[in-house]
UniProtKB/TrEMBL annotation:
Superkingdom per UniProt: Bacteria
Ranges where the Thiamine-binding protein domain occurs: 3-92
Descriptive protein name: Thiamine-binding protein domain-containing protein
InterPro entries in alphabetical order: MTH1187/YkoF-like, Thiamine_BP, UPF0045_domain
Organism: Streptomyces globisporus
Length: 98
């Protein structure tokens, strides 16, 4: 499964990069395949391991902010691995054919 999620502290002002870095650090230290862009962090693995990482990422932000917003989108497709890479490669292949 692939989960794309965004964790943001609320009530701490506009500059939230330091808080978001705490969440991304948890994801990167998990050892699961992941990718971070300007809006979301995507992580790939089995349900329990991915959700555990999301929970710990939220807790890392919550430790410094009393209120946290979580946006989560999941692609639950048993038996598929390397989706983070293969999905993008498929789109790029189609773009190359245009």
């Amino acid at each position: 499964m692939i989960v794309a999620f965004s964790v943001s502290p609320l009530g701490v002002g506009e500059d939230v990069g330091e808080y978001v870095a705490d969440a991304v650090r948890v994801v990167r230290e998990s050892g699961l395949p992941n990718r971070t862009d300007a809006m979301f962090t995507s992580i790939e693995g089995e349900w329990d391991e991915v959700m555990d990482v999301v929970k710990r990422a939220v807790a890392a932000v919550e430790a410094r902010a009393g209120r946290v917003s979580l946006v989560l989108k999941a692609d639950i497709r048993p038996g598929v691995t390397d989706g983070l890479t293969s999905k993008v490669e498929t789109v790029e292949r189609y773009l190359g054919n245009s």
